[in-house]
Amino acid sequence: MDYEQKEKMQQPKILSLDDDFSLIKRFIDGDELVFSELLKRHKEKVRNIIYITLSNTDGVDDIAQEVFITVYRHLKSFRFESQFTTWLYRITINKCKDHLRKKHIRSIFLPLKDEEPVFESINEDTDIKHIVRNAIATLPDKLRIPLVLKDLEGFSYQEIGDTMECEIGTVKSRIFRARAALKKILKPLEKELML
Amino acid sequence: MRKNNTDIELLSAYLDGELSPAEKKYIEEKIKSSLELQKELADLKKLKELTSASVDRISESPFFETRLFANLNVESKSKINLKKWIPISSLTIVTLALMAVLKFNPNLLDNIIKEQESNLVGFYKENLQPLLYAANLTNEDIFNFAVYQELPLDNTNNQILKLGYDTKGAEYFEIKKADEVKEPDNLQKFVAALDFDDEEIKQIDSIIGSYSNQISTLVLVNDQNSMAINPNIWNTRKLILADILAFAEKHASSNFNKMIPTQVMQFDDRSVTNWVNEAKAMKDNQYIFCTSDSIFKEDFVFDITEFEKDMEKMTENLAEVSEQKAVLREYRFKVDSSSSRKKRNADWTQQFQVFVDTNLIKVSVQSIAIDIPEIDLPNFDSIAIVIHEATQNVRTVRPPAPPMTVGNKGYNYEYNTVTPRKKGRTDVNLDSLMQIKNKQNNKNRIEQNEKIKSDSQNNNIQFFYSDSLILMQHQELKNEMDKLRRELQRFRQDFKDPKLENKDVIKDSADDVEIIEI
């Protein structure tokens, strides 16, 4: 589909200069400097998504670098069929999944003591935030990622579905199951957490 | 419970503001009427608050852009391209270099291959020596080669060089394991059958011996397990045979003609001489080399004179190390299954074809052979068997004949054991022996007939005996007649004196009574 038609359809009247599509168009036209603008606009969001998805600060910037290198390489073939952010977050989530998969495989061959601490080092779990973070970290990826995208990044179910390439019903179900599991994990600390 | 779960799932979505108006209305009404759902909603709210507050925003990375652009620059300019093109570019460079080299030296590869080939050929050609010396060929072997077309290569492993005809009538020779064990002393039997005297034996030995040199240069072997065969060996074999037969016909024509039909021998000394000259005129310095891993054709001139000089030296040395045993030879050919087919070569097919198998090398020499008529010899062994059987039959009806002596020694009928006389010639040949035997048989038969006749005359009966079987039958008849005659005599006596017999009977019965009384 002609991206101009798409552009007219979505932003028919007011086409601000800072719009993602217009920046991408300029990039495609050869103005590669606009990429820094795109980067500025989205890098923190991407870094945070990586952070909450990995439950760890380690490697966040490396993965973010990989995400934007991929975006840079493939931006000229962007088809304007979806929001740029949807495409960007999908790349981000996929990179995170790759990282988690590699980490999981690596952990099989590593001794237990070398396991990385979850969300910074925790000596005494008296801090509620730490407790909750640890509880979230124990959830499986397919439940944890929709939950954190919803509760921490404020994604809509539609956005989560687009990013994770699944149906809204699935997202709804997974978020519900994630909350139910989290509630069960935190049940012993019900009083402390005032649940 | 399931319904409850569905409601709670709706509560979760309600909390996130993700319900449709109808679902929203439905769940709100439910919440109003259900304390449980109200509590559940409160818990979910609290949980969502905890989750949302559990993670702080990650701090900004100040050098993120700088690092990213640095990475992008490296990747786009050098790293990506180089990585991608290293294998292709290096391959291209090598190919171009090769093309350039071959452009200016088109024969480079051929030269390398030829050089390697010549190295290999040189290796296999080293120390080639005639088979005659290597395998200790005797005149007997050469005779067998001429007659039976088999030349022993290695007595230990029973490998032979076999000459033959394929189905199309083309001539070939092959190296293989001998199928059967040959009868020994064929030459000796041949000489004995033809009844040569000493002088003729010497001559035939020298004729055969004269070819040994020629054969020796045609089949060469060495310690590298390689063998060089001159395709001319086919002609040589025919020449030897023709020469032997021509000599035999000339010196023992009567015996020879009995052994070999006249029409087989359609050549004379003159034609043999012509063939010899023709064969000698042929180019004979091309050898087929059979090695353990390859077969190739190569020019090779074997200097027999130089070799003989070496042999003289070796013989001197051998005298010193006579204890050393001969090196065992076995010609094994490693052949891929893929190459077990006729190897064709444009040049080769004009002269010969080579067939290779694991234990066999077969070389067809259809076009190189000179046109000598094929001599279809009778099998000397089969003749011996026929005569042996004949003599056996003679022995079964052997009459007590007086021993017949020839010279100082006796003789027997077995062809195989006929030994040549040491001095002078004898008129006795196989046929004459048979004639003598037949005469003796007749004489014996006449004697027997006369004896039987005299017996039968005594009995007033006359028979004509023509066969020993009938004789036996008459003997039985005679015995029967004797019995009958004796019985008749008894009857006559009984008639003459019947009382005597009755008394005896009465006496016997009285004895029986006495026994019963006891």
What does this structure look like?
The complex is a heterodimer of chains A (195) and B (518). Chain A folds into two domains: 11-116, RNA polymerase sigma factor, region 2, helix turn helix motif (Rna Polymerase Sigma Factor, Chain: A); 120-195, Winged helix-like DNA-binding domain superfamily/Winged helix DNA-binding domain (Arc Repressor Mutant, subunit A). Chain A contains ten helices and no strands. Chain A has helices at residues 3-10, 20-28, 34-54, 60-74, 84-109, 128-138, 141-151, 157-164, 168-186, 190-193. In chain A, helix 3 (34-54) packs across helix 4 (60-74) and helix 4 (60-74) crosses helix 5 (84-109). The longest helix of chain A is centred in the middle third of the chain and has 26 residues, at 84-109. Chain A is globular. Chain B is α+β, with helices and mostly antiparallel strands and 518 residues long. Chain B folds into five domains: 2-52, no CATH class; 64-106; 124-378, no CATH class; 383-455, no CATH class; 467-517. Chain B has 18 helices and 13 strands. Chain B has helices at residues 2-15, 21-33, 35-54, 64-104, 108-125, 131-134, 139-148, 186-194, 198-218, 233-251, 253-259, 269-281, 304-320, 346-349, 380-396, 430-458, 468-496, 498-517; strands at 129-130, 150-154, 159-165, 171-177, 219-221, 227-229, 286-290, 295-299, 342-343, 353-357, 360-364, 405-406, 409-410. Chain B is elongated. Chain B starts with a helix and ends with a helix. Chains A and B meet through helix 3, helix 4, helix 6, helix 7 and helix 9 of A and helix 1, helix 3 and helix 4 of B.
